[in-house]
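Dig into what follows:

_____
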Amino acid sequence: MHVAAAVAAAAAVLISACSLAGYAPKRPESEEELPTLVFSNYSHTLVVRGRKNFELEASRAEVYETSKKTILSDVSFSEYDPDTGELLSLGRADGAVYHTDTKDAEFSGSVRLESKKQDAVLQGEHLRWIDKDKRLEGRLDRTVTISRADGSRVSGAGFEADARRRSFSFRGSVEGTIEPKADEE
C-alpha cells in the first residue's frame, strides 16, 4: 500500500514539473467561433413532390448555429425541375458560406455556374446570392465572365443578375462578343 502511495506521489511530482501549455490547442476568444457540427463528405438533397429538386455536396461542412451560417469547402450543387426531374443548373465553388437565417449565399475561389435552360456558363472568383431579392452579384473589383455555346462571351466587373427579370448587367470594364441568333442575322 505504501508503494502505491509513493508511486502516486512521484507521478504527481513528475506531472506537475511538466508544462502542457505549449502543447495545448489554442482556444478561441469566444465559443461562438467554434462550429456546432463538422461534416466530411457532406451531402444534402432536397425533395419536392417526390422528386429531387436540389442536391449539394461538399468535402467539408461546418455548421455554426449561433451565427446562423454553414461554411462549405469544395462545394458542388445541382438543381432539378421538380415536375420533370430534368437538370436545370449545376455549379461548383472552392468555398461557400450559406446563411441559414436569410438563405443568402457567398461563393468564392473558382466559381462556375451553368444554366442548362439558358445554355450559359458564368465564371468568376466571388459571387453572392441575395435570396429576398432573387439577385446574384459580383464584386466591383472582380471579373465575371458569361459564355454560351454559340461563341458569345461577355466579361466585366460589378456583375449583377436579377432572376425575376431574367436580366444581368455589369457596372464596369465590360468587354466581349455577342453572336446574333440565326433568325436575327
